[in-house]
Every structure is written in structure tokens, then in C-alpha cells.
């Protein structure tokens, strides 16, 4: 339900609401339900507050609490019927737009054969390395599924490789020390490499532990890992980190704690966001709350799990099957989901 649409209809009935005023997104007037009040016509204790992409009505005299649609139904049944029709039209338009974007993804997956981009030429995948190779030992130490090893590449000298595929990325005076790294190619649905995220194998300066490189010039859309492998007809798990996505079926990763991405928006009805298990991290919780308010589905962690993310949970002994079942059972959305997520945040057990 659109907050914009509710505002329009509230403004249409505002001349009929005694003592109506608005300030900072809060609408105040005399409650038409309880009369507010018979003794003083200037009393105004009815309020509409904005929240979760909707208006919520509360009277501090009679205590009634209503959604905008229920308030309008009580106040003006004829206008309420118009509001319902407009809401249905709006939802139909949004659904058609979403279906159009999803169809584009499906058509691309169906009609275009995946390609191996030349930017990866000469780089071995982890499954092609000897079992005692430092990169393979590191990836196996993260308990990466064996069938996913072919998705990860190894580069002996990351600095030289980067300056070959993207000249000038590392300046001559760069303090970055050349090292060997594992690479996660980030592709579009056709298999075209849009960028890579590298992960240091050996200890290094924290700011260089992950380096993400984009080959798409002047693009404001953030990179997403896994789009070339995902099945758009099935539910899609969305994680922050790439390693986390490798343990979940049909999963992609957004390379950070922000999920604000046009691609995710176009797949909203399929997406289940799996945030890191960090209820005290304000950046993480703020982004999750934002997505719940935008209508996305979010998976909540069980309170007895202390691992900070999917990979750490796997390393702690939880199975992939257990995590998938937990995330599926604990998926929430809408206003009820926001309340449950905030309750989860407040539980310090």
C-alpha cells in the first residue's frame, strides 16, 4: 500500500477534519470517532503518523488505533471504495513492472549461451590447483563446497594482473604490496565479467583484505555475485558476503551490507535477504529495516546462534540443511516482519 496514495486521500478528506494541521509528517485533528471533545471544540488528539510505508492513526483520547484504510472506511465509505480501487491499480502496475523485468532476466538465461570472459584467461580455478596449494588449503579451510571450487580463481600477482586488465588502477606510488589472491568473478546473466572481488590469502593491511574491481565504467549499480548461475524461477537467497552465498542453494551476494539495488528490486517477490547475524551492528540493522519497509522478505537468525554469518556458522558445526531450514522458517516481511525483527534485535540472549 502506497504511502503516497494514502497522503492523497488524507488531503482529500482534510477539510472535513476539524482542527486539521500537519507538521513534519505528523497529521493532527479532532478525532471524528470519539468527538474529541464535547466540552472543548478546539481539542485535537487524533494523529496520523508515517511509518513502514503507511499511515497509522492513533487517538490519544479514546485510544483507537487504525490503519488509514480502516479509518477511511469508518469516515467515508464512498471514498474508501475509490481508495481500494486505486490501491489495486497501483499493485497491478507494480506487479506488471516486476514481471517485465524478471522476464528479461529469464529470456537472457534461456536464449544466450554463457561465455567464458577473456579477462580470466590464464587464471586457474581452485579445483585445478594441487590439493596442497596455499589457495586451495585456504578455501578448503573455509569448508567451501567442493562443487563450488570451480567458481573461484587464483592469481599469483594480483597487482600485476589488475594493471594488465585495468591499466592504471594501481598508481606507481600505491602502497599496496603485490600478493597472491583468490578471485571471485562477478558476472551478468550472460557470463560477461563485470568485475571481480579479490580476497587476500595471507595477513595484510585490513583495508586491502578485500579489493573489489569493476570493469563497468560510470555504472551506479552495485555489483552482485552469482547472477550467472541463479535460477530466477525459484526463491533466491541474498547474502552480504560471497563465501556465505556458496553454502546456500540458489544464492547471490551483494558484497556488503547494503541491499539497495535495482536488480534486487526487480526480483523482489523471489528474494529472501539473509543478513549477517549482527544485531548490534547499526549499519546492518538499518539496512535490513529499510528493506523490510520496502516490502522485501528477510530471514531472521535463531537467537542461540552466535556465529556472525553463514560461513562462520558452517565452521561452527551447523549444516547447510539446518541453516536453509532455519532461514526458510524464520522468513518475515511487512509490518509484522519489522516488529519481529526489532524484537529479535532487542533480545540480548
Could you please describe the fold and organization of this structure?
With 349 residues, this protein is an alpha+beta fold. The protein folds into 3 domains: 3-82, DNA Primase, Chain A (Alpha-Beta Complex), CATH 3.90.580; 118-214, DNA primase, catalytic core, N-terminal domain (DNA primase DNAg catalytic core, N-terminal domain); 236-346, Dna Topoisomerase Vi A Subunit, Chain: A, domain 2, CATH 3.40.1360. Helix content is 34%, strand content 17%. The chain has 11 helices and 14 strands. The protein has helices at residues 3-13, 68-75, 77-111, 134-141, 158-165, 242-245, 262-266, 282-293, 310-315, 320-329, 334-346; strands at 21-23, 26-29, 46-51, 54-59, 65-67, 153-155, 181-187, 193-200, 210-214, 236-239, 251-253, 271-274, 297-299, 331-332. Strands 1-2-3-4-5 form a 5-stranded antiparallel β-sheet. It has a 5-stranded mixed β-sheet with strand order 11-10-12-13-14. A 4-stranded antiparallel β-sheet has the order 6-7-8-9. Strand 4 and strand 5 form a beta hairpin. Helix 2 (68-75) runs antiparallel to helix 3 (77-111). It is elongated and about 85 Å long. The two termini are 35 Å apart. Mean pLDDT is 87; it is low at 108-116.
Amino acid at each position: 500500500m502506497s504511502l503516497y496514495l494514502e497522503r492523497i486521500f488524507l488531503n482529500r478528506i482534510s477539510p472535513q477534519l476539524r482542527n486539521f494541521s500537519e507538521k513534519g509528517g505528523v497529521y493532527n485533528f479532532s478525532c471524528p470517532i470519539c468527538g474529541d471533545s464535547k466540552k472543548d471544540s478546539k481539542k485535537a488528539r487524533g494523529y496520523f503518523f508515517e511509518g513502514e510505508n503507511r499511515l497509522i492513526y492513533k487517538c490519544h483520547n479514546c485510544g483507537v488505533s487504525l490503519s488509514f484504510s480502516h479509518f477511511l472506511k469508518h469516515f467515508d465509505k464512498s471514498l474508501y471504495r475509490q481508495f481500494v480501487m486505486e490501491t489495486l491499480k497501483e499493485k497491478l502496475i507494480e506487479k506488471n513492472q516486476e514481471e517485465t523485468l524478471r522476464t528479461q532476466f529469464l529470456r537472457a538465461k534461456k536464449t544466450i549461451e554463457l561465455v567464458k570472459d577473456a579477462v580470466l584467461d590464464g587464471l586457474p580455478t581452485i579445483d585445478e590447483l594441487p590439493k596442497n596449494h596455499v589457495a586451495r588449503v585456504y578455501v578448503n579451510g573455509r569448508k567451501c563446497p567442493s562443487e563450488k571450487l570451480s567458481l573461484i580463481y587464483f592469481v599469483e600477482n594480483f597487482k600485476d594482473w589488475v594493471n594488465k586488465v585495468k591499466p592504471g588502477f594501481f598508481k606507481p606510488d600505491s602502497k599496496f604490496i603485490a600478493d597472491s589472491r583468490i578471485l571471485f568473478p562477478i558476472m551478468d546473466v550472460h557470463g560477461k565479467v563485470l568485475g571481480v572481488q579479490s580476497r587476500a590469502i595471507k595477513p595484510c593491511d585490513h583495508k586491502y583484505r578485500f579489493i573489489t574491481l569493476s570493469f563497468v565504467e560510470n555504472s551506479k549499480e552495485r555489483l552482485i555475485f552469482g547472477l550467472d548461475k541463479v535460477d530466477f524461477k525459484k526463491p533466491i537467497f541474498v547474502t552480504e558476503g560471497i563465501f556465505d552465498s556458496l553454502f546456500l542453494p540458489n544464492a547471490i551476494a551483494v558484497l556488503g551490507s547494503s541491499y539497495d539495488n535495482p536488480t534486487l528490486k526487480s526480483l523482489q517477490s523471489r528474494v529472501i535477504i539473509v543478513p549477517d547475524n549482527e544485531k548490534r551492528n547499526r549499519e546492518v540493522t538499518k539496512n535490513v529495516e529499510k528493506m523490510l519497509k520496502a516490502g522485501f522478505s528477510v530471514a531472521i537468525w535463531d537467537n542461540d546462534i552466535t556465529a556472525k554469518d553463514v560461513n562462520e556458522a558452517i565452521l561452527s558445526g551447523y549444516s547447510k540443511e539446518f541453516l536453509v531450514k532455519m532461514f526458510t522458517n524464520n522468513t518475515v516481511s511487512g509490518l509484522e516482519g519489522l516488529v519481529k525483527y526489532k524484537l529479535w534485535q532487542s533480545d540480548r540472549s
